[in-house]
Every structure is written in C-alpha cells, then in structure tokens.
Amino acid sequence: VVVAMAAARDDAAASAGSFGAMQARFDGQVGAVAYLLFVLLYAPCLAAMGAIYQEVGPRWAAFAVAWTTGLGYATAVVFYQAATFAADPLAASLWITAMVTAVGLAVVALHRAGRVERPVVGAGLARTG
Q1: Among 70, 58, 52, 55, which residue's Cα sits nearest to residue 109?
Q2: Labelling 74: which of 35, 37, 50, 81 has CA 20 to 30 A away?
Q3: Is the dihedral of CA 63, 68, 71, 77 positive or negative?
Q4: Whole-number pLDDT of residue 61
Q5: Cα torsion for 104, 109, 114, 115, to the nearest 10°?
Q6: Three-state SS at 126
Q7: Residue 28 falls in which region: left (phi positive, over 0), alpha (psi -120 to 50) or beta
Q8: How large is the average pLDDT for residues 68-72?
Q9: Tell me: the pLDDT tens digits for 80-90?
Q10: Closest by Cα among 80, 85, 75, 83 to 39
C-alpha cells in the first residue's frame, strides 16, 4: 500500500510538472489543446504512409500527407482563434475565415477533380483467349 501511494504521489508530481511545462510553452491550456488537435490530425505514421504508398501509389500517399496536415493545421487554428476571440476579435475573425475558406476551396476542388472522367487503362483492348 505504501509503495502504491508513493507511486501515485510521484505520478501526480510528474503530471503537475508536465502540465505546468505545457502551459508555459503553449500559451496556456488553449494553446496546448490546439497543439494536441494538430498532432491528432496531421500526417499519419510512417507505417500507415507505407501502406498507403503500397496500396494506391505515391500520389495518394502525398495527398494523404498534405490533406491531413492541412486539415490538422486548419482545425488547430480555428480552435485557438475561437477560444481566444475576445483578445483580438478582428485577427481571430480573419484567421477563422481564412481557414474555413481554404478548407472549403479544397473540398470544392476535390469534388470537381472527382467528377472528371478519366480514360480507363486498357479499355480499348480486345480480349484474346
């Protein structure tokens, strides 16, 4: 029991030290949560990227990195600016508008790119055999 209580005390001290360090480096809790949102959504791990590369090729792998990193950045910026809106409403409004517009334009571009008909490789070849 004494060992468990000492371990719990040490864990609490480490957690308090970690949270204090996060608050000092990330503009308080809001900055830390924005950072965590970015880390949650940015590019997948190398193993996942390898699987994407193997399954669908290098273009999709590059797209996956760009899309997830951009989406993570936009999400973190919108959260941070919304949470600190009272400090500078004009700048926060501009940042939020810019991020929402950028993501919206990317979605529209992806939608349009998906509607373009592409020739099927080998579609005109006759089957022999």
Answers
A1: 70
A2: 50
A3: negative
A4: 93
A5: 110
A6: coil
A7: left
A8: 95
A9: 999 999 999 99
A10: 75
